Amino acid sequence: MKPQVRNTKQKTCIQKIFQEAIGPLGISEIYALASKDVKGIGLATVYRVVGGLVDSGEIKKVNIPNAVEDVRYERSDTALHHHHFFCTKCNKTFDLTKCPMASDLNKFVLPGFKVDAHELTLYGLCANCHGKK
Amino acid sequence: MKPQVRNTKQKTCIQKIFQEAIGPLGISEIYALASKDVKGIGLATVYRVVGGLVDSGEIKKVNIPNAVEDVRYERSDTALHHHHFFCTKCNKTFDLTKCPMASDLNKFVLPGFKVDAHELTLYGLCANCHGKK
DNA sequence: ATTTTTGCAAAACATTTGCAGACAG
DNA sequence: CTGTCTGCAAATGTTTTGCAAAAAT
Fold first, then answer.
1. If you count residue pairs, one on A and one on B, with CB atoms under 8 Å apart, how many are there?
2. Which of B11, B84, B25 has the alpha carbon at shortest distance from B53?
3. Range of B86's domain?
4. Angle at CA A31, nearest 5°, toward A28 and A34?
5. Is CB count within 10 Å lower at the N or C end of chain B?
6. How does residue B133 score in pLDDT terms, banded at 50, 70 and 90?
7. B65:A100 CB<8 A
């Protein structure tokens, strides 16, 4: 008997946060944003709702190494496929519009290997930080 | 007064582990390997030595999202530039020999942005896991 | 000798889980 | 009503720190 899913204001709120998000979000950011809407929401609930959304495929986990929060989440359909740019000065994350990847990734692995997916992060300075030293 | 660095068997041992490593290592792997050599080594020491090696630039931190241990370390000079393949079945990590990246990454970011580095992980099945279903 | 490094234990964080009550359907 | 979801607190798991003893120079 698979448990039936219910809609709660906590879950709805977090879903809306992801709808409006401009980049991948860390747990503490989600918690802070959700707290404004649903006062008294528990951190454990944030973890549970986010985990549930990942399981249902609505959002997915992404890693932004060396960021303030390495583990982040974003909507699965934000783009069919996209990557991230991380500014090493202001610590903000931006979405790339294009994929800089070679066409057939299977050419880059050993024979017999099969590539299904990939994850890429670029590092550097964003337009704002690049100007001012 | 900058603290002067000293050589200890714990540090030497961990450095040797990285010399002989074939792929990026997680803390628990390093701890297990080091324990064979230096019996009684403390986990805190592993964290401290690894942290020190990162600070000195000898090794660097890499993230392999969705692996058993997301946070791993490898020698900075293992290759001037290389990436990883992660088998989603056996959870092993392999090094790529070539970089599948476009030549000028600056063409893929917004005007004013400057790309300094990038990190890539491919996912799929390794030769061994690909055969047997 | 002097100072860094170690191992242990405690502390600080991060994430997960048990449970009784609140809430959705 | 029935069973899921929430918030809290306790439990886990991971990484960091304080400190006295051990080790390096």
1. 129
2. B11
3. 9-130
4. 150
5. N
6. very low
7. no
pLDDT over 70 at B35, yes or no: yes
Q: Is residue A1 part of a domain?
A: no
SS3 readout for A5-27: CCCCHHHHHHHHHHHHCCCCEEH
Question: Which residues 83-122 in chain A show a CB within 8 A of chain B?
Answer: 85, 88, 94, 96-102, 105, 107-122
Flag whether A4 is in a domain: no
Q: Which residue of B has its CA nearest to A63?
A: B65
The rounded distance, in Å, linking the Cα atoms of A65 and B122 is: 15
Query: Looking at the 3D structure of chain B, how many domains does it have?
Result: 1
Residues in chain A within 8 Å Cβ distance of B115: 85, 122-124
The answer as to whether B3 is a domain residue is: no
Residue A3 lies in a domain: no
pTM of this structure: 0.73
Cα A111 from Cα A93, distance rounded (Å): 35
The answer to whether some atom of strand D lies closer than 7 Å to the beta carbon of A10 is: yes
The answer to whether B123 contacts A115, with C-beta atoms less than 8 Å apart, is: yes
Tens of pLDDT, residues A3-22: 789 999 999 999 999 999 97
Closest CA to A24 of A88, A56, A67, A57: A67
Q: Which of B96, B101, B55, B54 is nearest to B74 (CA)?
A: B54
Any idea what the CATH number is for the domain that residue A47 is in?
1.10.10.10
Q: Which of A101, A118, A127 lies closest to B123 in CB terms? A: A118
